[in-house]
Amino acid sequence: MDIDTRLLRYFAAVAEEGHLSRAADRLFISQPALTKQVKQLETQLRTELFTRSRAGMSLTEAGRALAERVPDVLAAWDAAVRETRGASSRASRVLRVGFVASAANESTQAIIGTFAQRRPGWRVEMRQTDWSDPTAGLADGQVDAALLRLPFPGQAALRVEVLITEPRWVGLPTSHPLAALTEIPFRQLWDEPFIATPPESGWWREYWLASDERDGHPVKVGAIASNPDEWLTAIANGYGVSLTPEATTRFYQRPGVTYRPVSGVSPSQVGVAWAPANDDDAVRDFVRACLRHRTSAG
Hints:
This protein is α/β, with parallel strands linked by helices. It has helices at residues 5-17, 20-27, 31-45, 61-92, 108-118, 203-208, 228-236, 248-251, 281-292; strands at residues 50-53, 56-59, 94-99, 123-128, 145-150, 159-166, 168-173, 184-185, 193-196, 220-224, 242-245, 257-263, 268-274.
């Protein structure tokens, strides 16, 4: 019997969380979609894996037997995938680097140039993802390393070096009354509708809404954006405001959008991240190139 490894990952998350909604948040998918996947796995195995109740999901005896085996199965499969992709990358002398928006800001080209000096004949292939995947393909082995905004979901399981620390600003419609201020206290933005990243981005979304820096004041979401173009359009159309790194003011100019520094909110960071299993010579050379161009703004 062949079973999609995705179903096993979903099963493992529900087994560990003991609750569908928490597992769905962790997996960045909707609860109905997760329920459907769990039922599909049970159908394929022809047995119930969970006992459902108002309190949550508890494993049946069959479910416990599967739960004991699944982590080793997934770990072995993930290692095989990473090694296969890594071997392909090394054979072609290509280092795959994921990023979400501005990568390492103006340092990106210098980093690539330094890596090229260390690895003559190699090429860095930059792969961009939208905001639904804050790891830019690193979590599922699509890239060898990534230049990411910190913090991000799953960061604890990866190796990370901080490269850039910079203030967070706010993007808001040019016609907004607060755009006339030189600097905006974050407290004055609490009642504004915010542009949010997709729910699949997990708590990365909450970080960019600064949910834990509002003294319990609720967040009002005015629109959802999956990439910089959607984000800029939503702001220009007056659907909301959004916290953003200072670098955005240099990389993403758009008529109708004004940027202002914000006081009373924590700074943003960029880091180079890679999986421990990907810690080979090429990745280490890329990390060294990144550290050579470490900067601090603001």
